Amino acid sequence: MSLTILEKKDFPNFVRRLMTLYRVGGPARENGGYAFKIIDDPDDLELDYPTTILPPKKFLLPPRETLFEFDNAWDGRVRPARAEPRTVVFGVHTCDLHAIQLLDRVFATGHTDPNYLNRRKQTLMISIECLKPCDEHSFCKSMGTLTADEGYDLHLTDLGDAYAVDVGTQTGKNLVQHARTSPATPEMIHKLNAVLSEKWPRFPYRLEFDISDLPSLMSMSMKSPLWTELGERCLACAACTNVCPTCFCFDVKDELELDMQHGRRIRTWDSCQLDEFATVAGGHNFRKSRALRQRHRFMRKGKYILDAHGYLGCVGCGRCARACLVNITPVSVFNELYRQREIGGQA
Amino acid sequence: MISQKGYSSSQAHDEVDNQLFLPVPAKILQIKPLTVQDKVFTVQLPEGLSLGHRPGQFVEVSVLGVGEAPISVSSSPSRSNGTFELCVRRIGDVTGALHRLQPGAVVGVRGPYGHGFPIEKFRGKDVLFAPGGLGLAPLRSLIYQVLDERALFGRVIILYGARNPSELLFMDEIEQWRKREDLELLLTVDRGDDTWQGNVGVITTLFRHISVYPRNTVAVTVGPPAMYRFVLMEFLGKGISEGNIYLSLERRMKCGVGKCGHCQINNIYACQSGPVFSYAEIKGLEEAL
Predict the structure, then answer these.
(1) Which of A7, A160, A191, B63 is least enclosed by beta carbons within 10 angstroms?
(2) Which fold has domain B2-113?
(3) Separation between Cα atoms, residue A245 and residue A96, nearest integer Å
(4) Do A112 and B251 touch (CB under 8 A)?
C-alpha cells in the first residue's frame, strides 16, 4: 500500500507503544536458539534471527487450546472458550507468512473454524524480509517463498540503520501511526532496491526441478520404492509434523476435573506419522506402515493440499529437515523422486 | 445443520460459524439392547429441532468428559417423529460411556455431517442391499426410506450377513421384513450355532441365490473394510456398473468438518466427500479399500 522509513533508534519506542495496546510476540533468545515468545521488553525482540524450532503458527493454532468448557458433565451445556487478547507478532519470515496464508484458506474453507478464524482476526503480522538463508536446510527460493507481497499488516526490510516499512493492510496503516516514521526518500528507495537485489544470489536453488512440476511428480510417485525405504528409516516420532508451519491436523480430547463435573474439550496438534492417527475404534488402521504414513505426509505437502486449497503444502522453511533424527528431508525426497523419473525408474 | 441458535442449512464461507465445535444437548429417550454389544438409542433434540439428515449421514456424539465419536444415523428421515436413532456398538471410550447411560441422560450432538446416499438416483431402479454386521445400522436408515416410498422403486433385495447368529442386528424388524412380499431377504452367518437353521457362509455365498437385471440395479453395501473387496467383486460380477455401486467408508472422523485430517483418504476427506461414495468415485484412490 505504502512505504515509510522507521529509524532503528525509534524501533524500541514503537514496540513499547504497541505493548500498551496489544500482546506483543516475536523471535527472542531461548536455550541458545530462538523461539517465538510473548515479550515484555522490546529489547528481547531479535528480528535478525536464523529460524525457530516452532513456527509462528502457534499464535493462531496453539499446540493446545480449549474448545469449550462445561460445569456439569451430565446436563450437556457447554460454554465456548474465552477470546484471547489482540496480539501483534513481529519478525515473521516470508516462508511462514506463506504458510499462514495456507492456514487461513484451510480454516475458512467449507465449515469455517471459529477458533482459528477468531484468533486470526485478533492477530496482526509484522513480517521481515530475509536477507540471507537461515541455514543449509532452507529451500525457500526453490519453493517461491523467498519473499511475499501479501499476508502481512506491516513488512520490514532491514536497511542498516533503519527499516523500510511496507504497509500491507488498513490495520497495518493504523499500527504504523504509533511509530515515528518518515516518508521514504528516493535515496532510501534506491537503497531498498539494492538490498533486495543483493539478497537474491545469496539463496541457493536446492530442488533439481521447477516447483511447478512438483504436483505431477508426486502423482506419478504413488508407487515409488522410495516410500518403503523411508518407512524403514522413519522412527514415527512425529517431529517433522510438529515443527511444520503448514501442518494443521489436530486431535480432540475431553478433560474432566476430579469432581467429575467440571471439564473442558481441548484440541491439540496431532500427527499423521503416529501409529494410531488413522486407526478407528475396533483397531483397524488405514495407514498401518510407516512407509504409507511418510508417503501421505509428502503427498500432502506436494499435492493433496494444493488439490484441496490451491496452495502447496510446503514452504521450504527446512524445519522438518532440522528436526528429523534420521535425516529424512523434503529436498532429498523430492529430488530423489525426480531422479527416479528422470532415469525412467519405476512408476 | 443443527445449532444452539436454531436451524441453518448452509454456512456462508466468509462468516465464522461460532457454534461449529459446540455440541447441542440432546436427550436419550429410550435405550434398546440389540445384542450383547449393540444398543439402539432414541435421541431427541431440544426445542423440537429436527436433525434433518439424509440416510448415510453421521453425527458427532459427545459424552462430556469422555469425548466425541462419529456415529451413523440409523433411523430414516421418513420416520423422524422429532427423534432419531443411533445404533451403537460398545467398542471404544465414547461408545462404552454411551452404553453405561440410562434413558433421560443428556448427550451432545453435532451434525449431521457428510454426504448420504443419493436416493433420488435410486428411484425407478431395483435396489440391492448387502450390509455386513454393524453395516446394517447406517443402511437401515436407507432401507426404511425406500420401504416408505416403496412404489417409487423396483425390486428390493436385502442380503445380510453377520459373524454368528447372536450378532445379527434388528432381528425383530427383519422378521417383519421377511413377511413382506415386496422384499427379497436372505440372511447368512459365518458360523452357525444350535439355533441357526439358515445359510452358513460369508455374505458372498448369498449372491449365487439371486439374479438381477444389472442395467436397472443400484447396489449398496456397508460393512467392515475387509468385506468390501469381496462384495464389490460380486456386484461387478453381476454386471452392475461401477457408478451404480455405493458404499460407505468408515474412517476416524474426529472433527466431522474436514479439518482434523484423521479421515483423509489420499487427497479427499471422507467426512466431507463421503462417507458415502460410488465405487466409480473411489476406485482410483490408493487408500480407499
Answers:
(1) A160
(2) Elongation Factor Tu (Ef-tu); domain 3 (2.40.30)
(3) 6
(4) no
